Amino acid sequence: MTTYKIFHCPRCETLLYCPYIQKTKKCPKCQKKIVIRRMKILKVTNSLKDTIFLIQNLKLPPEIRQKITDSTKNSFILKGKKEKFLDLIRKIQRNSLNQIILENDFIKEAEQAGFSEEWVSIQLAELEKNGLLVHPTKGQLQFII
Q1: Residue-wise DSSP of 33-88
Q2: Which pTM does this prediction carry?
Q3: Which tens digits make up the pLDDT trace of 5-27?
Q4: Helix or strand run (H / E) with residue 28
């Protein structure tokens, strides 16, 4: 299993990553050759998927992302607004017996979690368009996640 390092370019501050054993890297933005062992490593991850996810979230504005402490590994995971929304859906699905949720109850739960009603309705429309949400009857939701 390959581990990856996340660091900044010293010249242009672009977020970069490389395999743990790599010694040098050329910045794609400013073309500076970087000696990795001299750089301050922001994070070491165990998979490429986690590395890319972290870099994408670190590029988000600070008001959108939120640091969530992972006490088991004594590190942090960055979650955006949509990931928190999907976590809310999964939590509500676990609590419901037949996987069918009343739409009004879901919107109330989402508002309590800090999401606005219009943002939730936009996300529900997007999930329905992508085939991840079904309306068995009017006013009911069933997620296929």
Answers
A1: EEEGGGSPP-EEESSHHHHHHHHHHHTS-TTT-EEEEETTTTEEEEE-HHHHHHHH
A2: 0.46
A3: 999 999 998 899 999 999 999 99
A4: none
One-letter amino acid for residue 107 of the chain = I
CA distance 127 to 24: 42
Same domain, 43 and 59: yes
Token reading at 125: 């429309």
Locate tokens 């219009």: which residue? Answer: 118
Number of domains in the chain: 2
Shared-domain flag, residues 68 and 13: yes
- The set of residues, in sequence order, having a beta carbon less than 8 Å from that of 92 and lying 6+ positions away, is 101, 106, 109
Separation CA 79–CA 90 (nearest Å): 15
